[in-house]
Design goal:
single chain, 515 residues, alpha/beta, six-stranded mixed beta sheet, 20 helices, 14 strands, elongated
């Protein structure tokens, strides 16, 4: 073959790499046996370069597990290897393959792509981090000809090794331990806490935080990236504290065992399992029963719930929960939307509480929806009005301690805007019932908590953040806005004198059809 022919073939093979998968497959099917072997070699190399999961599939002959949530970790590594500077937090339940992908195949793939970069890995214990480092070291050594990298002679310890002919390598350590030597282009932290006992200790949490700030972050190169992958144990664990201190800096990928919201990162609908090929929703239901509510919500659902406070108990909520299917047979006589605007003396309550609740003819109370969140004035007014339209509410219950007339005006303006848009569908505007919470927080909350204890209040489905706020609130603490909104709504509905909204009957028949 002449030089010109070789150049032409080289250009053709280079073009082949840029083609879509379907087109490459058609070419391979029509190729000669010799060319097909060469194309297979190219495909193998492309797979090794594509992602940690693809590399793992090649080196294990297709035996390595792959799933959509692992694809997310793969994409993070792809972006970092391409030069992006990222801070990414991935939370997911145990036995979901996070450590194998994050701490083993991820570093192998990254060092193949960037052999001049340093990779730093930490876990809650040095021996566990060393185990991951040993696995990466052995995998590189075993597959060196295929990977195109090998380890430098004399630098092959499990917790520190270097790449032959390059500046890169890997170092591992336990959280709290030293990370000496050169800086790192990637720092991966895989489970910084051993379990609930460590995460529940303020001393241990502070120790991990100090190590994070004084050791790990100081070893990062200027354009270095951080990947934190863990299960949640406590509201103030490392993930929780980072989200409080610097939420705008992090890409957060929250992957609960069972999807909770329709904006799930995997596109799951509420109730769908993370990895149904391994653990179905039924499997997780059995696990939930075995491990208990607190472990379930923290370890599996990434919604850590501290121990119960002094007013509500978990059993009062979980034991009286009603599914949306069972609720279809319930006729409501009243429905209200309660609003607790953000504000006041507490700097921690920056959400607007928006909770929809109803009452049936037997006096049973139902929490129907929680649309609380960090909303600006225009946004929360619109959100509350849209919920009232969705539920066909007859009243807004609005706390006016902070804002007074402004709170009422926001609701009126939002409703007027929706009327102009035609979004109210001819519905009469719900009456505004103003609440001035002069009584202490405990005096307002305790009667509603007693109704929960008596089994008179039912949550239609699960409201993780609202329920966490309820069971962790202790008198004397600033009461959170979601909880306050729920208390306002249920107080209004539980008061027999308010059956027709206070002492005044409706004159527009808005309750017609409700018994």
């Amino acid at each position: 073959m002449t030089t010109a022919e070789l150049d032409l073939e080289g250009e053709a093979l280079a073009l082949y790499r840029t083609l879509p998968v379907a087109e490459r497959r058609r070419i391979a099917e029509r190729a000669s046996p010799d060319l097909r072997l060469r194309l297979a070699h190219i495909e193998r190399g492309m797979a090794l370069d594509r992602s940690p999961g693809a590399l793992a599939s090649v080196l294990t002959g297709g035996r390595e597990m792959q799933a959509p949530h692992l694809d997310i970790i793969d994409r993070i590594y792809q972006r970092i290897a391409a030069g992006e500077r990222l801070k990414v937090m991935v939370t997911m339940p145990p036995r979901a393959g996070k450590s194998r992908r994050t701490s083993r195949w991820g570093p192998v793939w990254y060092l193949r792509r960037q052999p001049d970069h340093r990779f730093m890995l930490a876990s809650y214990a040095a021996h566990l981090a060393d185990d991951h480092g040993r696995w990466v070291r052995n995998t590189i050594t075993e597959h060196a000809p295929t990977l195109g990298i090998d380890l430098r002679y004399g630098s092959q310890a499990a917790n520190r090794f270097d790449i032959t002919g390059h500046e890169g390598g890997m170092v591992t350590a336990g959280v709290g331990g030293a990370l000496t030597g050169r800086g790192a282009h990637v720092a991966a932290v895989d489970d910084p806490f051993k379990g609930s006992e460590d995460a529940g200790s303020p001393t241990m949490r502070d120790r991990v935080w100090d190590w994070w700030q004084a050791v790990l972050l100081t070893r990062l190169e200027p354009q270095g990236s951080v990947l934190l992958v863990n299960t949640r144990w406590d509201d103030d664990d490392l993930s929780g504290r980072l989200l409080k201190e610097e939420p705008e800096d992090w890409i957060v990928i929250d992957l609960p065992a069972i999807a909770l919201t329709s904006d799930d990162p995997l596109g799951r609908q509420p109730g769908e399992a993370l990895w149904p090929d391994r653990f179905t929703a039924e499997d997780y239901a059995r696990i939930r029963k075995s491990v208990g509510e607190r472990v379930w919500w923290s370890l599996y659902q990434q919604q850590p719930r501290p121990l119960e406070g002094g007013v509500w108990q978990w059993a009062w909520i979980t034991g009286n929960r009603v599914s949306s299917v069972a609720f279809r047979g319930v006729d409501l006589t009243r429905i209200v939307v309660a609003i607790d605007p953000s504000g006041g003396s507490s700097s921690t309550n920056d959400e607007t509480g928006i909770v929809g609740s109803g009452r049936d003819s037997n006096g049973e109370l139902y929490v129907l929806a929680d649309k609380s969140g960090r909303h600006g004035a225009n946004a929360w007014g619109r959100e509350a009005c849209l919920l009232a339209i969705e539920l066909a509410a007859d009243a807004f219950v609005v706390e006016t301690n902070f804002g007074g007339d402004m709170t009422r005006q926001v609701v009126l303006q939002a409703w007027a805007e929706l009327e102009r848009e035609g979004s109210t569908k001819g519905m009469a505007m719900p009456r505004i019932v103003e609440v001035n919470a002069k009584q202490g927080k405990r005096l307002r909350a305790e009667p509603i908590a007693q109704l929960y204890e008596q089994g008179k209040v039912h949550h239609i489905g699960e409201f993780p953040e609202l329920e966490r706020q309820m069971v962790t609130w202790i008198p004397g603490m600033d009461s959170p806005d979601r909880m306050d909104a729920a208390v306002h709504a249920l107080t209004e509905l539980a008061d027999p004198a308010a059956s027709s909204v206070g002492s005044s009957l409706y004159s527009d028949q808005r309750l017609t059809g409700r018994r």
